[in-house]
């Protein structure tokens, strides 16, 4: 049985087992969309440079059930971000949230299943916001995830509260016995005047292949502050499509940094809908690609209301046969006067077989805005390389130092020091040198 | 220490060095002077191993090794140091991290154990005082936004840290005011001893007021056309390079 059939069977099974809920129409609609659109191919303009349908030629097990027991403490320790006993940890195993492995210390942080949420005080919030990302990403993969939305979780950050300790999200796949398809689904609601920091990573255990199709929707209320860090350093035999859809529905501040290191095919959709006046967002990306890793960052900033400010900078170095794709769109809608929107993508090409496809786009429908966009693709500066070598630094180490130096300003936007150092170490390991 | 024999070099298709002969012994200071375009900086670059230059003939022996066979980093390990005419700015790499990496790579090459943080800091403080450079400069990105004088002082600081056998100073005086020249020259003088040597490449005599050479060579059109003691530098300053050009023309 191929994977598409497995998915369909699993869907029918779930629908008949669980009976109807308020989420059923959302799932049904998405399932129909998936059946109509299928897996995107390179004929789809948004997928022109990323051939994701090949991933579905393999067979995957897709039978989410709680297998928390298969993940040991040492498995967890291997992938943990640095933290202390107060750190909040949300663990997903094969796409499903694990109550057993997760630990929540902050009282102002609530994590419940979306199904449960629809039967609670959060019902209206869920119905209002779940699935908003499909307005921006109308493809079969987004629909596929939404078809199983009831299995996802709802994260609520209470109004007026500061979540003092970061919320770490570990997306674990146990592929020790079969290829795994995982579909984590999260809806995060950050209440008025709340502050929270999220950091997430992805880890596959086992030699079999994994495909993660993740959708995270984040709703940010007035005066809230959200930091979101995504660190991707999974094995080369793993593939991921992640969608992070952020709505600033009140005047708020959002900072995101996406760091992509190892992996097979990695596609990140990041949408920021600036729906409230005077909102501000900063989003940064960093990638160091080697081997045959393919990383595709698709970002959309939608300026809906006036006086918003967004700043986007993605930087990366691409070596060996690796590929980096950047597609950044800034929309400035008719009413979004006085928008300030900046976008830049800078690349270092380190080998003759490496590829960069970069496409910055601006679509402006207002007439009083400041916007800029641009991209560069270059090589390491020969003069700088010689300078370092003339001081006794080997060619390989000199290259690593220069690549690291190229990226370091992005690292500076990872505000929690523990995470920043952790990422710096991952990068140094990736570059094959120790940098203090 | 250094023996250059009939050295020829070119960049792309242009031949620049057309038969350089020069011997430098430990403890000596040599100055290479000459008009613009004579090949002074090329000579400095070729000795340090700049990749754009192709050596087409001749030989260079440094401490009984064939220098031309070595990579730039190996030359640094052997004890060659080039103070750049235009030091490179590298945003994102602090001078401290850079110099620590360099010092330990050179120590590794020389078969010495790397310095730990404490040893390194001690060495750095000592050398900082010697070349009059302050910590705030070293904590910043390498040469980024440095003034001309700060960049050159940083070059001398690196030289102090790496303790080379042969220091080549490529127009270190260019673009510096007299106070900056004095500081740079003081640094070089403090680092001089009987076991190392200095090769100064300069267009003007004034640097030689502060770093007094044992020998002065005039480079013109890819060859050393005249050698002498420091008096030769005064003669050049007085008469200008035309007198050399005329002499060479007469000999031809």
Quickly count the helices of chain B.
Answer: 10
Percent of residues of chain B in helical segments?
40-55%
Multimer state: heterodimer
State the strand order across the main sheet of chain B: 6-9-10-3-11-12
Order of helices and strands of chain B: EEEHEEHEEHHHEHEHEHEEHH
Helix-strand pattern of chain A, N to C?
HHHEEEHHHEEEEEEEEEEEEEEEEEHHH
CATH class descriptor of the domain at 2-88 and 164-251 in chain B: Alpha Beta
Overall pLDDT metric of chain B? 92
The radius of gyration over CA of chain A amounts to: 21 Å
Distance between the termini of chain A: 51 Å
Q: Tell me the CATH topology of the domain at 2-88 and 164-251 in chain B.
A: Rossmann fold
Tell me about the largest β-sheet of chain B.
6 strands, mixed
Please identify the structural class of chain B as seen in this structure.
alpha/beta
- Please give the CATH architecture of the domain at 2-88 and 164-251 in chain B: 3-Layer(aba) Sandwich
Bulk shape of chain B: globular
Summed up, the helix count of chain A is 9
Q: What portion of residues of chain A is helical?
A: 10-25%
Largest sheet of chain A: 10 strands, mixed
Mean pLDDT of chain A: 94
């Amino acid at each position: 049985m191929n994977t598409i059939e497995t998915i369909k069977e699993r869907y029918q099974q779930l629908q008949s087992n669980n009976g109807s809920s308020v989420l059923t129409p959302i799932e049904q609609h998405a399932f129909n969309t998936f059946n109509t659109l299928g897996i995107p191919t390179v004929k789809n303009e948004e997928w022109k440079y990323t051939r994701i349908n090949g991933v579905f030629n393999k067979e995957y097990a897709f039978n989410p059930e709680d297998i928390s027991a298969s993940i040991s403490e040492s498995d967890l320790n291997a992938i943990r971000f640095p933290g202390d006993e107060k750190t909040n940890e949300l663990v997903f195993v094969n796409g499903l949230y694990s109550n057993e492995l997760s630990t929540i210390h902050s009282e102002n942080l609530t994590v419940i299943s979306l199904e449960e949420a629809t039967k609670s005080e959060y019902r209206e919030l869920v119905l209002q916001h779940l699935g908003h990302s499909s307005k921006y990403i109308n493809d079969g993969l987004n629909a596929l995830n939404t078809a199983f939305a009831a299995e996802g979780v709802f994260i609520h950050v209470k109004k007026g509260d500061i979540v003092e300790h970061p919320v770490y999200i570990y997306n674990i796949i146990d592929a020790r016995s079969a290829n795994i398809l995982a579909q984590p689904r999260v809806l995060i609601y950050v209440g008025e005047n709340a502050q929270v920091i999220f950091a997430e990573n992805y880890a596959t255990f086992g030699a079999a292949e994994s495909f993660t199709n993740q959708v995270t929707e984040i709703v940010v209320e007035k005066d809230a502050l959200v930091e979101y860090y995504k660190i991707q350093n999974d094995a080369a035999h793993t593939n991921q499509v992640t969608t992070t859809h952020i709505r600033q529905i009140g005047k708020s501040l959002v900072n995101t940094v996406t760091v992509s290191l190892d992996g097979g095919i990695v596609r990140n959709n990041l949408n920021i809908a600036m729906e409230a006046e005077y909102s501000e967002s900063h989003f940064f990306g960093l990638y160091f690609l080697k081997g045959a890793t393919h990383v595709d960052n698709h970002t959309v900033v939608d300026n809906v209301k006036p006086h918003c400010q967004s700043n986007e900078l993605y930087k990366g170095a691409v070596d060996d046969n690796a590929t980096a794709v950047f597609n950044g769109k800034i929309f400035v809608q008719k009413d979004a006067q006085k928008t300030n929107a900046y976008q830049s993508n800078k690349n270092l090409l380190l080998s003759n077989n490496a590829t960069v496809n970069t496409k910055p786009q601006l679509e402006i429908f207002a007439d009083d805005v400041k916007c800029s966009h641009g991209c560069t693709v270059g090589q390491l500066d020969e003069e700088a390389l010689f300078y370092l070598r003339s001081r006794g630094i080997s060619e390989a180490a000199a290259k690593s130092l220069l690549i690291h130096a190229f990226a370091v300003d992005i690292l500076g936007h990872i505000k929690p020091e523990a995470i920043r150092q952790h990422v710096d170490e991952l990068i140094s390991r990736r570059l094959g040198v120790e940098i203090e | 220490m250094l023996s250059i024999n009939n050295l020829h070099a070119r960049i792309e298709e242009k031949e620049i060095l057309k038969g350089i002969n020069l011997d430098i012994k430990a403890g000596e200071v040599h100055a290479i002077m000459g008009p613009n375009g004579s090949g002074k900086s090329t000579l400095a670059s070729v000795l340090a191993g700049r990749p754009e230059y192709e050596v087409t003939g001749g030989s260079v022996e440094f401490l009984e090794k064939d220098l031309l066979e070595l990579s730039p980093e190996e030359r640094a390990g052997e004890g060659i140091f080039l103070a750049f005419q235009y030091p490179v700015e590298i945003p994102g790499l602090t001078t401290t991290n850079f110099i620590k990496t360099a010092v330990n790579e050179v120590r590794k090459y020389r078969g010495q154990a790397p310095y730990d943080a404490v040893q390194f800091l001690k060495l750095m403080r000592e050398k900082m005082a010697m070349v009059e450079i302050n910590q705030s400069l070293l904590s910043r990105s390498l040469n980024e936004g440095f003034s001309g004088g700060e960049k050159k002082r940083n070059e001398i600081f690196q030289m102090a840290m790496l303790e080379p056998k042969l220091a080549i100073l490529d127009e270190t005086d260019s673009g510096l005011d007299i106070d900056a020249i004095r500081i740079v020259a003081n640094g070089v003088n403090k680092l001089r001893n009987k076991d190392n040597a200095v090769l100064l490449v300069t267009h003007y005599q004034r640097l030689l007021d502060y770093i007094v050479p044992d020998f002065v060579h005039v480079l013109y059109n890819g060859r050393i056309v005249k050698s002498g003691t420091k008096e030769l530098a005064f003669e050049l300053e007085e008469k200008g390079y035309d007198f050399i050009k005329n002499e060479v023309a007469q000999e031809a």
